[in-house]
Specification:
There is one protein chain. By secondary structure, the chain is mostly helical. It has a single domain, classed as Orthogonal Bundle (Globin-like), CATH 1.10.490.10. The chain is 62% helix and 0% strand. It has 5 helices and no strands. The radius of gyration is 15 Å and the shape is globular.
Length: 130
């Protein structure tokens, strides 16, 4: 049964399943393994998943405990380019479609797409010369 609403439980599940998929992805997993390790059950991953749950819950509901700038952890990773964000969006969309009704999935995906576009621009990964 698909989630028809956005609540903390549905966001927790989204974040957990998404990052389980990330760890299986050859393109994206090296960034996360380098910083957090390969075992999603370790303390670093616990903190990361909690932070991302707080972030997405706050972003989608206007409620919650997220504080900070989501761009900052990405500023010094090195090696990121647009293809990483395209893959991130693809995997995120797949999980959204598995978990949420189409209306809710599209709503969350719209926020993810906007976030990706912002990151690409702010990290100067786009090909625009402006």
């Amino acid at each position: 049964m698909l989630y028809e609403n956005i609540d903390r439980g549905s966001i927790e599940k989204l974040v957990r399943l998404f990052y389980e998929d990330i760890l299986k992805d050859d393109l994206l997993s090296p960034f996360f393994i380098r910083i957090l390790g390969a075992d999603i059950k370790n303390d670093k991953w616990y903190e990361h998943l909690n932070t991302l749950t707080n972030f997405w819950y706050a972003l989608m509901t206007g409620e919650g405990r997220y504080m900070g700038d989501p761009l900052m952890p990405h500023m010094f990773l090195g090696g990121l380019d647009e293809k990483h964000f395209e893959r991130w969006l693809m995997l995120f969309r797949e999980i959204l479609d598995e978990l949420f009704t189409p209306t809710i999935a599209i709503k969350i995906y719209g926020r993810a797409k906007a976030l990706s576009t912002r990151f690409i621009s702010d990290l100067e990964l786009d090909d625009d010369d402006d």
